[in-house]
Each structure stands twice: as structure tokens, then as C-alpha cells.
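S1.2 Input.
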Amino acid sequence: MKRPRATLIMVLAVAVALAACTFQAGANGPNKMSYVVVPHPDDEIQAWSLIENSTGNYKVFIVLNRGEQTFYCGSPGYDEGTGEIPPDPWPQGKWTPSCESARTNSFFGFMEAMARTDSALPASFTYAGVKGPFDSLGTEVCRFDDGDCVSDLTVEVWTSHIAAVVWFNLGDGDVTADEVKWAITTVRDNRTALGINDTLRNHNLIGAGYWNGAYPGCSDYAHADHGAMHEALWNTDFDVGYQAAPTCKHDPNVTRIEEVTYDHFHDAFEISGNTRVGWHPVHYGWLLSGDPGYWPGDYESQDIEFHRIQHFWIRFR
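S1.3 Output.
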């Protein structure tokens, strides 16, 4: 039976509309690559102003270590009844596999929660397994716990259609600038082996780790792992676009100021009385005890490490 002409026209119109929607969806997807270096799982928010709402950027989060040396893996600061999520699994001490897993799970819990209000982040990541070992490129790659060097040249990878996580094991508290260089270079040069889209052009390299050990008027935070990341990004041109890292507003090298939107910062740090509502204290609250028992967010200044108004130095534009 022949279709009536009007019906054929309608079918063609629907097909064209569907094709247009498909093309538009593809056009609105990521078209460039951002590398985001995270010293420890919970630092990612420190460069959030360059991450949020970046739907055009495929983001590769390069996490340098597993946060396994925190005091709170031996004595979790979990406050029951406050809205905090307890560490999972309950850590059995510093440097233990349970500590590493608890830190990893907190990171993904936070990231996936923030994705609820930011379409530039995936609702979930898929575990792609262990990749490597990769060439050390002549770098001494060591994790020091409470003894000798352990060299781990593998990574764990999680992927999605708009972001990936590549997790290194460089040692909490003993990351070196050379190791940071090795990690970034390894990811940049092995995207196919890591299961990451290798067709997108490189756009930028963001250090998601605030460091300040020199300038008054800002939180004094000079963690060695953050310092190593800053040193690597400041001194080495990775040829991936501009390189940025967050610093004190009084740093004379500041050339860019960005603000996390109030809505997203509220999503991250909202507190209602004694109840943790924001996803950072909910998922990472067990990493601090005492008063207030969680890491707060600073909405208007830089009096504490996690601040909404973020100042960056920029290199290799």
C-alpha cells in the first residue's frame, strides 16, 4: 500500500528533525581537552571556577596520590547524626588499602553529587581498570610510607563520555615536581592506552591545588605536594595550552580571577545549623574532627583553603 503524500512528508520532517537534534547534541559535546591535576582527593574544589559549567571541555582529572597518609585514616573524624557520610570502608590506619579506598570513594561521591547541578560533569564514572606499567622516562617514581621506596608505574582509570579520572600512586606527602611532570606527560602521551579520547585538541592544564607559603592576608597553606605541583606547572611547558594554578590574591603573579558561582559553591559547602548539606562536608567531613568538624568554604575571602573567589597565575598562554 502506498503511503499518502502528506504522511511521507511528515515522516521526512520527523527524520530531519531527529537528525538535526543528533547533530546538535554532538556539536554541544566536548570539543577540547582539559587536564586537571589534583594533589589529593578533596582538593579538586580549589580550582572549581575553571571547571564548573565547562561543557565544551573533556576533563581528565589526574589525581597524584591516594591520600593514604592522613591522620584521619587512623582516627576518622566522622560525626554521626550531622549528615556526614562515614568513610567507606572504615579505614584501618594510615597507608592501608582500606584508607585508600575510603579516600577514593569520598572523591567519587563528591564528584557525582556535584554533577546533579552541573551537566559538565558525568553522573557516574565507569571503572576501566589498571593500566600500565608505563615508562618512567628516567624519573624516580617513589611512594614512601614508613620505609623504603615503592615504585608504582601503573594507574587506575575511570572514564565517561565527558570526563575521566587517572589515579596515580605517587605517595601522600612525598610527591616531587619530577613525579608531577612524569604523571602529566604520561597522561598526555598515552590517551589511547588509557581509554581516553585522543582526537580532541589540548586546551589547558589546571592545577587544582591552592598553595601559599609567602603572602600574608590569605590562608597560609604550604603543603609539599601542592608545592610540587605548582613547581612543575610553573617551570615546565607541557604544550597543552595555558597552565594555571590557584594562589593567594596578593601573589604578584596573579593574572586571572574567577569565581565559583554561588549556587555551585552552596552545593559544595552549605551548612544548616549543625547539619552538613553541601557535598564537600557530607563526603569529606570525616577528614576533620573537633570544631567545626568539617572543612568549611569561604564565600568572600581567602581566610581558609577552600574559597569561592579563586586567584590564578597563568603560564605558557
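S1.4 Remarks. The two ends are 64 Å apart (CA to CA).
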